[in-house]
Amino acid sequence: MPSTRTEAMFLPRMRDLGKMLVAFGGVLILLGLALWSGSGAGWLGRLPGDVRIERDHSAFYFPIVTCIIISIVLSLILSLFRR
Questions:
Q1: Alpha carbon of 20 to those of 7, 35, 43, 68, 72: distances in Å?
Q2: Does the CA dihedral 31-35-37-38 come out positive or negative?
Q3: pLDDT in 10s for each residue of the chain, 83 residues
């Protein structure tokens, strides 16, 4: 039982935050396992629009399209948790 009014106000919010953090951690673990196993290595970072410049002794790589797609997917997932 919460002993003060302030604790009674913040306790439900903290429980929701804890649930969200656990769910987010689970998603990160699943994503990490998928990438570690190699299932994401085929297309991840090799999409049309990803910038790759290779010279004699240097290389520059910026996966802009991959970043945009990951951002959209994470935004959709997080919007489900806000509801």
A1: 20, 22, 29, 23, 19
A2: positive
A3: 556 666 666 666 777 778 888 888 998 898 888 777 776 666 667 788 889 899 999 999 888 998 898 899 889 988 887 76
